[in-house]
Inverse folding.
């Protein structure tokens, strides 16, 4: 009887931790003793208590319309001052927000718990951390705090970003350094090693750069937006039927000139202020295998880019900026999630020499940045002219017809000016067109008003698109697109001769396009238009 | 690169055409869309003086021409090929686009049967990479061929190491 007693059932295994199925300890081993800041963050931590000052103010601001209504109703009523409760509620909400938000960095995961009624736990593996950005609004800065945004490479999940809103700046910097170091696996620095002395910044903002502000795309966009808005207004107030040929008075032409002048005068201060607010105090440093950018006049931002994720650079050399002898530089960044922009500003519009120098350091190649590019040939240049001039010459022709049939003559002037501008742009586009494959980079340059020279590392090319319309095929041209995970997703080589495009694709990624080459002229399959 | 005897390097067309039934499918799709347009234009012509019947007729002629010509043209252009190391497609009609994606960079392989394509026993296969500009889509494949292709691609993409970025 006793021998038949079944052994007591084994104790049920502890419920698996849904956030860490492998159990604790797995991630501890390779890192050795945890680093100081991370050691502290093992346990659930509240954010900085000074956020008690920030949250209530924010909540009060959020509820401001309601509060104003309450106060108006309360003061006119004359009953007991119940409306002061209205202020209390947002303040209590703010305090609760502080009390219910905790975070920790433990068991190889970064976790953030928040919410009183709706419990929300954000959790991400520590080795998936790709970016750690610090953002400080004015109120943060007054209190010596900053918001830490921990970005992961997970494409598009809604809990991709972890915001630790409100840590002391020093602690946040330390956390960033340690998180990034562990994420990139650079733990050869022992925990006892002092952090490397900060490298001297490569780029430091100079007030004289403000002279580039009116020449940037932003300035042009502002101008275009204002102009568009005004023309909308004019269209509404002055519908086309009312613009009678004989009734157009001379002062209205003066008014047009006046509006243009006012616009030009407005663009300058607006763009300068915009530039100042975004780029004041700009610094670019390189340390710990990352690029660090900090900038901002009111809200300061510190972003770090892992060098391994910089797939290339994009040099902005718009026509206006080039005339002012300026350039600006953005990095083509891979491995960020889809919501985040795949490019990060490395140098704001600044003197060209400086920007080109920094660009050469980023890609570790001067030829990719300043070297000569291969010309796309006469057919591609002609295409720049036809594409710019043919559509814009329709308008002066129309104006000519109008004036010959008894209409006003003055529409000829602006339309001819537009044609002239188109010619300038066409000439510039034609002269700028070029590509190269140098020192492991696919380099492409095109455009005029918003010309870009992009250099993309061959290793980050993840496919080729060759697109050609019937017109392009007739001329033996094709638009070669090197697709990539970063930037705008592609670097485009406009109107390359087909043989150049195929040769470049072949040389950049040997063995890929090679298997699809036409082996001889006679082998060209049917259905392929001859040219 | 290529040796000099072959002249300037060019790409050949991908090896396989899509299913011939794709022509009819495209014609049906374009026809339905065109019909809707013509009906709307006809309704406008009934109600508004500004829209004349000759405009509706012109639209109908354009639609009929499109339905007659473009699917046929598209069928001549659309081709695909999958090797051990890459997927290569050619699509379009007026603008022709060739796309090459290395197997090592493929992130997802999607198989889809739309409402119209199911009528014809056809399916489409879409291959995505980490680039927004790099997705490759092959429409109008025979269902069996499409399934086989998905299986092959999934197996081969798995076999290659890396995180495809």
């Amino acid at each position: 009887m006793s021998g038949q007693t079944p052994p007591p059932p084994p104790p049920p295994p502890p419920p698996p931790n849904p956030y860490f199925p492998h159990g604790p300890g797995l991630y501890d081993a390779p890192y050795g003793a945890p680093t100081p800041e991370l050691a502290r963050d093992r346990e659930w931590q509240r954010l900085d208590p000074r956020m008690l000052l920030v949250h209530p103010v924010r909540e009060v601001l959020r509820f401001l319309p309601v509060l104003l209504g309450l106060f108006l109703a309360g003061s006119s009523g004359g009953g007991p001052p119940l409306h002061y409760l209205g202020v209390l509620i947002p303040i209590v909400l703010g305090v609760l927000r502080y009390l219910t938000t905790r975070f920790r960095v433990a068991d190889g995961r970064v976790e953030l718990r928040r919410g009183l009624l709706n419990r929300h736990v954000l959790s991400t593996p520590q080795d998936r951390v790709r970016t750690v950005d610090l953002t400080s609004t004015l109120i943060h800065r007054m209190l010596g705090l900053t918001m830490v945004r921990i970005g992961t490479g997970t494409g598009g999940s809604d809990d991709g970003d972890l915001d630790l809103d409100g840590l002391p700046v020093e602690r946040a910097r330390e956390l960033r350094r340690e998180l990034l170091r562990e994420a990139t696996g650079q733990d050869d620095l022992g925990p006892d090693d002092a952090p490397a002395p900060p490298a001297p910044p490569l780029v430091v903002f100079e007030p004289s750069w403000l002279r580039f502000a009116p020449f940037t795309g932003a300035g042009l966009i502002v101008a275009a937006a204002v102009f568009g808005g005004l023309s909308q207004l004019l269209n509404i107030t002055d519908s086309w039927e009312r613009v009678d040929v004989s009734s157009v008075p001379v002062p209205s032409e003066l008014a047009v000139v006046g509006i243009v002048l006012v616009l030009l005068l407005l663009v300058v201060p607006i763009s300068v202020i915009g530039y100042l607010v975004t780029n004041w105090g700009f610094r670019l440093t390189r340390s710990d295998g990352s690029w660090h950018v900090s900038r901002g006049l009111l809200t300061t931002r510190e972003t770090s880019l892992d060098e391994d994720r910089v797939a290339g650079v994009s040099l902005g050399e718009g026509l206006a900026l080039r005339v002012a002898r300026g350039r600006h530089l953005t990095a083509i960044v891979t491995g960020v999630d889809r919501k985040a922009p795949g490019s990060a500003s490395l140098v704001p519009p600044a003197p060209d020499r400086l920007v080109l120098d920094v660009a050469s350091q980023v890609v570790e190649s001067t030829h990719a940045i300043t070297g000569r590019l291969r010309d796309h040939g006469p057919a591609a240049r002609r295409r720049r002219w036809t594409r710019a001039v043919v559509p814009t010459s329709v308008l002066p022709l129309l104006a000519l017809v109008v004036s010959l049939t008894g209409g006003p003559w003055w529409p000829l002037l602006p339309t001819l000016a537009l044609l002239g501008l188109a010619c300038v742009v066409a000439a510039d586009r034609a002269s700028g067109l070029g590509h190269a494959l140098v020192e492991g980079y696919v380099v492409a340059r095109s455009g005029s008003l918003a010309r870009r020279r992009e250099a993309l590392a061959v290793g980050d090319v993840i496919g080729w698109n060759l697109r050609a319309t019937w017109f392009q095929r007739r001329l033996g041209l094709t638009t070669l697109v090197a697709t990539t995970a970063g930037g705008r997703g592609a670097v485009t080589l406009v109107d390359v001769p087909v043989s150049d495009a195929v040769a470049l694709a072949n040389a950049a990624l040997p063995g890929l396009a090679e298997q699809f080459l036409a082996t001889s002229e006679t082998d060209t399959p049917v259905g392929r238009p001859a040219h | 690169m290529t040796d000099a005897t072959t002249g300037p390097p060019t790409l050949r067309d991908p090896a396989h055409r899509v299913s011939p039934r794709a022509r009819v499918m495209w014609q049906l799709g374009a026809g339905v869309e065109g019909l809707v347009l013509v009906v709307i234009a006809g309704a406008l012509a009934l109600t508004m003086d500004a829209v004349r019947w000759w405009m509706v007729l012109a639209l109908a002629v354009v639609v009929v021409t499109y339905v007659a010509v473009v699917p046929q043209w598209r069928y001549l252009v659309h081709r695909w090929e999958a090797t051990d190391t890459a997927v290569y497609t050619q699509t379009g009609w007026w603008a022709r686009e060739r796309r090459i994606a290395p197997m090592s960079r493929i992130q997802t392989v999607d198989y889809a049967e739309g409402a119209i394509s199911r009528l014809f026993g056809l399916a489409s296969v879409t291959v995505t990479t980490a680039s927004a500009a790099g997705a490759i889509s092959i429409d109008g494949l025979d269902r069996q061929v499409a399934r086989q292709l998905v299986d092959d691609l999934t197996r081969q993409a798995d076999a290659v190491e890396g995180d495809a970025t």
Notes: Chain B touches chain A at residues 1-2, 6-14, 76-77, 81, 83, 85-86, 88, 92, 94-102, 105, 129-134, 136, 164-165 (CB under 8 Å). The domain at 79-159 of chain B is CATH 2.30.29.30 (PH-domain like). The radius of gyration of chain B is 20 Å. DSSP finds four helices and seven strands in chain B.
